[in-house]
Design brief:
By secondary structure, this protein is α+β, with helices and mostly antiparallel strands. Helix content is 20%, strand content 39%. The protein contains six helices and 23 strands. It has helices at residues 3-15, 128-140, 224-245, 324-330, 343-356, 385-397, and strands spanning 21-31, 34-45, 52-62, 65-75, 81-87, 92-98, 101-106, 109-114, 160-171, 174-184, 190-195, 201-206, 213-217, 253-257, 260-261, 274-279, 282-288, 299-302, 307-308, 312-317, 333-338, 362-368, 402-404. A 13-stranded antiparallel β-sheet has the order 8-7-6-5-4-3-2-1-13-12-11-10-9, with helices on both faces. A four-stranded mixed β-sheet has the order 17-16-14-18, with no helix packed on it. The longest helix is centred in the middle third of the chain and has 22 residues, at 224-245. The N and C termini lie far apart (51 Å). Mean pLDDT is 90; it is low at 1-19.
């Protein structure tokens, strides 16, 4: 067990006998770097044995639409969850039934879950303070490579947590040291999280499942740009590692033979039993097998019974994490039209794909521009013609193809 979590655990356990409340905190919630709400949490002792309960409330406004989510997490003193109840647009719950099993309920479905030796309870990436307790459990229990997350769906993957490095931020002229982690499989994609020396959640940058959110501890709010830079760099490190885990099946010169070829450019019907010659990333020839000769000794990919067609275009997506690229490629998408996201992340992702051949489709980017106000979408606003011209010039200089108002 590392020193910081042990110290924190002893502090919590000792504080339990001094009073009910042992810890509290507040996080500012951002959508695309625009502040939209807050999350508050409090940890209390609920019995003399050191059992803890964390209550959290997340409230924000997404372009004028109010959202509220609450969570009540009951834990043993070693952070093992005994129950979790999440309320909001949908309700979810986890409750230990006996020493070996728990009941998980999501919406109108439930499932009995046989408890493994190590597990944690969570339903997606929010409330964010739940992830703080997940990290504390993971650290306290020896940093397991995989951690079961009981869900109704039997295909739910175990969470994987990794220590990613150390960062320092500057707050009011003082340096604060933080540890950076990543959590995968709470939703599609990964979160990047930072803990301070007290094992409190300093910030979360989540690309999981939708538009990017950021949650920053209130006292660290001024360091949001520093968190974003570190988070984007971490995402690019993750992206660079994908190619090592998913090497190309073929490279150089090879032929794809036997597929039904859909040639939309030529305008004629499908070509049965086709041959496509690929030479170092470019199509050298395509047509019927009796019309396209396969050079002697060339590697041949047998595609009989399959269909081969030009890459698809995804016309409206929000590229919200580096996992999107491989997923789109696997679905046959080779060009994606992004309709608004975080500037630094999108530019870094696009450039990695274009210049470093990272796994992902060609990206066409749209720059978000909105008016000022609490319901604004994104960080770049324009209320006058001159401000609008400045905004468009900013995106144009960065190579964006579109503006989204």
């Amino acid at each position: 067990m590392s020193r910081v979590p042990l110290v924190l655990f002893l502090l919590l356990a000792g504080a339990c006998f001094a009073g009910d409340a042992v810890e509290s905190g507040s996080l500012t919630i951002h959508l695309l770097l625009h502040p939209i709400g807050a999350e508050t949490y409090e940890v209390r002792r609920i019995d003399p044995g050191g059992q803890l309960q964390m209550d959290a409330t997340l409230e924000y406004s997404d372009r004028g639409n109010k959202r509220t989510q609450s969570a009540s997490l009951r834990m043993r003193r070693d952070y093992t969850p005994e129950s979790l109840e999440v309320k909001g647009r949908t309700a979810s719950s986890f409750k230990i039934e006996n020493a070996n099993a728990a009941v998980v309920r999501e919406a109108d479905a439930d499932r009995k879950f046989q408890l493994p030796r190590q597990y944690f309870a969570a339903f997606g990436s929010t409330p964010f303070s739940t992830q703080m307790m997940l990290l504390r459990y993971w650290i306290h229990h020896g940093r397991p490579a995989r951690l079961a997350i009981p869900r109704v769906g039997t295909a739910a993957e175990d969470a994987t947590i990794e220590f990613a490095g150390a960062d320092s931020i500057s707050i009011a002229g003082k340096t604060v040291m933080l540890k950076r982690y990543t959590i995968a499989n709470l939703a599609f994609g990964r979160e990047v999280l930072w803990l301070n020396e007290q094992a409190q959640l300093a910030a979360v940058m989540t690309f999981a499942g939708g538009l990017p959110f950021e949650a920053v501890r209130a006292e660290y709010e001024s360091a949001l740009p520093q968190f974003v830079r570190s988070g984007v760099a971490e995402e690019m490190r993750i992206l660079a590692g994908f190619e090592d885990r998913v090497p190309p099946e073929n490279s150089g010169a090879f032929a794809i033979a036997g597929a039904t070829l859909v040639d939309a450019v030529a305008g004629h019907g499908p070509v049965p039993d086709s041959v496509v010659i690929v030479r170092y990333g470019r199509i050298g020839a395509a047509g019927r097998r009796d019309q396209v000769a396969i050079p002697n000794g060339m590697t041949v990919v047998n595609a009989a019974g399959q269909t081969l067609l030009p890459g698809l275009w995804e016309m409206h997506t929000h590229f919200s994490g580096v996992e999107f690229g491989p997923a789109l490629l696997a679905a046959g998408v080779t060009t994606a039209r992004d309709c608004g996201g975080e500037f630094d992340f999108l530019v870094a992702e696009r450039d990695a794909i274009e210049k470093q051949h990272a796994l992902g489709p060609r990206l066409l980017l749209a720059g978000l521009v909105d008016g000022n106000g609490p319901a604004a979408f994104g960080t770049l606003s324009a209320d006058t013609p001159e401000e609008a011209r400045t905004a468009v010039a900013y995106y144009h200089a960065a190579g964006f193809q579109q503006i989204k108002l």
